[in-house]
Amino acid sequence: MASDYIEHKLALLPDMPGCYLMKNINGKIIYVGKAKNLKNRVRSYFKSSHDGKTARLVSEIADFEYIVVSSDKEAFLLEITLIQKHRPYFNIKLKQGNGGYPYIKITNERDPQIKIVNTLVKDGGFYFGPYPNVYAADETVNFLQKVYPLRRCNGFQNRPCLYYHMGQCLGACFKVVPEETYAKQIKRIKSFLNGNVAHAKQMLTARMEKAAANMEYERAAEIRDLIKYIEITVEKQKIISNDNTPRDIFNYYMDKGWLSIQVFFIRQSRLMKREKRLFPIIDDPEEEMVSFISQFYKQKNQILPKEILVPKSLPTDVISHVVEDVPVRTPQRGQKRDLLEMAGKNAQVVLEEKFRLLELDESKTTGAMKELTDAMGIAPGHKIEAFDHSHIQGADLVSAMVVFVDGQPNKNLYRKYKLKTVDHADEAASTKEVIRRRYTRLLKEHAEMPDLILMDGGVIQMNAVKDVLVNELGLDIPVGGMVKNTHHQTADLLYGDNDTPLQLDPKSQGFYLLQRIQDEVHRFAITYHHKVHTKNSLSSRLDSISGVGPKTRNKLLRKFGSLKKISNASVEDIRKLGVPETVAQTIKFSLSKIDEERKVTNYQDKKLTH
């Protein structure tokens, strides 16, 4: 039931279009919505019964505000802006940054190159894709560089580069390549990437036959492999449209408060990639879909297609307006309609599978989170960030952070820290550094703060966290300390001004969640520390070998990754890295001695053990 304060505000709502912002007890915006009629929409949250995610939202609303606009379209545009600004917990949120797919780019310069990129820039270059993964894009670029070369060298150097001798560079390294030569080659590349592979296949077949006739069998075999690439990688993809228009297809299926979305990327007349998303939702599915599509194209790594297809339930004019006037259509018949229906069917299958596999047990996830916040006497929250440190006798100091959202680990948000200002075992100093680095960055990025911070440790760590948050950063975030018993098992949670044990019930779901968080952050910190320690140990051993400096050491580490692999490599393999033969032989000899010493040590250890 709504409080008197909420009731009074509801009575003042206007019968006008606009956006509303729901806030929790801390004044944090937890949901942004739009409405054709603010009075009817906002009142419905408090005057109707709800379940699922909407019920959870309503239980956390302590206040709201609204912004009046002149039209429904204007409300939609404002809603998108507000969602991107505040990133509310209960709104659909897409991952930010370079989380998309790779593209192939022909650069816009005097001597153009072809390369793989993740970020799209308006610099006059030609972009093709998206590709299913980096491997697929790399295979395609590798093929094009062999068949339709542009420039592979760094530019003029007064002599032909290695790639020119291999037939994979037009020679900008030692001569002026006519612009029309590049233009012809780019035309062929664009034709190939748009699905026209016949010319490439005919040309390669002629080259292969000529090489075979001249008894250049290795060359003929190389060309045969290129033809096989076309047949296996390109031609095997079924052509599903009669034109080369790059288009994206969106469809959805909704059931039990969950929205399942399918996106088909049609490129080069083929279904190049399918993307699926699942969200619990609050608003109407149509409005959530429009919000999703608009956010989808505001990602850094998302290129606009020439056409977007959507089901008839979505407002094509509104979507087109927010995606830079790309045509948005609903096909009525034929192949495009079949593709749209296929996307919808896939969305349904994915959601039904989700329901079969997912145990929506609230007591083990959000219920456990609420047990913790209730025990601490703080507002209900969703996101916990937990920290732990790791070192060996004060060496190789590292820290790690794990993130749990509604009782579940979100490994995409985990972070690792090499300590920079601490060179010995000092829990307070280590804690201050990592907390300072983490939350200074979130403040600079205007990013979402956690609802609760947990430290693996007791009073020393907790006071260090509070000191940085309150006295340096001016943040008011609850801080708890996860303490262990003499058997190194989770014992309790410290909280409050006096760091008091809360005496959680060991059989409760809240205690079980605390145990999982403490175990997970400890595991993550130990794993990272082991990796850093191993790498540092490996570096020091290589540094001890005569003739091996920092450059040679880094080359060896990048190429081989471990002492064992370097030891197993031949002198010739090491020389290929640009290492002189005498140094390569010294490396082999020194590592063989280290191997012998390790074997003797292991043998002596076994004798002592037995």
Automatic annotation (TrEMBL):
<feature type="domain" description="GIY-YIG">
    <location>
        <begin position="15"/>
        <end position="92"/>
    </location>
</feature>
<dbReference type="GO" id="GO:0003677">
    <property type="term" value="F:DNA binding"/>
</dbReference>
<comment type="similarity">
    <text>Belongs to the UvrC family.</text>
</comment>
<dbReference type="InterPro" id="IPR001162">
    <property type="entry name" value="UvrC_RNase_H_dom"/>
</dbReference>
<comment type="function">
    <text>The UvrABC repair system catalyzes the recognition and processing of DNA lesions. UvrC both incises the 5' and 3' sides of the lesion. The N-terminal half is responsible for the 3' incision and the C-terminal half is responsible for the 5' incision.</text>
</comment>
<keyword id="KW-0742">SOS response</keyword>
<dbReference type="InterPro" id="IPR038476">
    <property type="entry name" value="UvrC_RNase_H_dom_sf"/>
</dbReference>
<dbReference type="GO" id="GO:0009432">
    <property type="term" value="P:SOS response"/>
</dbReference>
<dbReference type="InterPro" id="IPR035901">
    <property type="entry name" value="GIY-YIG_endonuc_sf"/>
</dbReference>
<keyword id="KW-0227">DNA damage</keyword>
<dbReference type="InterPro" id="IPR000305">
    <property type="entry name" value="GIY-YIG_endonuc"/>
</dbReference>
<keyword id="KW-0963">Cytoplasm</keyword>
<dbReference type="InterPro" id="IPR036876">
    <property type="entry name" value="UVR_dom_sf"/>
</dbReference>
<dbReference type="Pfam" id="PF14520">
    <property type="entry name" value="HHH_5"/>
</dbReference>
<dbReference type="Pfam" id="PF08459">
    <property type="entry name" value="UvrC_RNaseH_dom"/>
</dbReference>
<comment type="subunit">
    <text>Interacts with UvrB in an incision complex.</text>
</comment>
<keyword id="KW-0267">Excision nuclease</keyword>
<dbReference type="GO" id="GO:0006289">
    <property type="term" value="P:nucleotide-excision repair"/>
</dbReference>
<keyword id="KW-0234">DNA repair</keyword>
<dbReference type="Pfam" id="PF01541">
    <property type="entry name" value="GIY-YIG"/>
</dbReference>
<dbReference type="Pfam" id="PF02151">
    <property type="entry name" value="UVR"/>
</dbReference>
<dbReference type="InterPro" id="IPR047296">
    <property type="entry name" value="GIY-YIG_UvrC_Cho"/>
</dbReference>
<dbReference type="InterPro" id="IPR001943">
    <property type="entry name" value="UVR_dom"/>
</dbReference>
<dbReference type="Pfam" id="PF22920">
    <property type="entry name" value="UvrC_RNaseH"/>
</dbReference>
<feature type="domain" description="UVR">
    <location>
        <begin position="198"/>
        <end position="233"/>
    </location>
</feature>
<feature type="domain" description="UvrC family homology region profile">
    <location>
        <begin position="249"/>
        <end position="469"/>
    </location>
</feature>
<keyword id="KW-0228">DNA excision</keyword>
<protein>
    <recommendedName>
        <fullName>UvrABC system protein C</fullName>
    </recommendedName>
</protein>
<dbReference type="GO" id="GO:0005737">
    <property type="term" value="C:cytoplasm"/>
</dbReference>
<dbReference type="GO" id="GO:0009380">
    <property type="term" value="C:excinuclease repair complex"/>
</dbReference>
<dbReference type="InterPro" id="IPR010994">
    <property type="entry name" value="RuvA_2-like"/>
</dbReference>
<dbReference type="GO" id="GO:0009381">
    <property type="term" value="F:excinuclease ABC activity"/>
</dbReference>
<dbReference type="InterPro" id="IPR004791">
    <property type="entry name" value="UvrC"/>
</dbReference>
<dbReference type="InterPro" id="IPR050066">
    <property type="entry name" value="UvrABC_protein_C"/>
</dbReference>
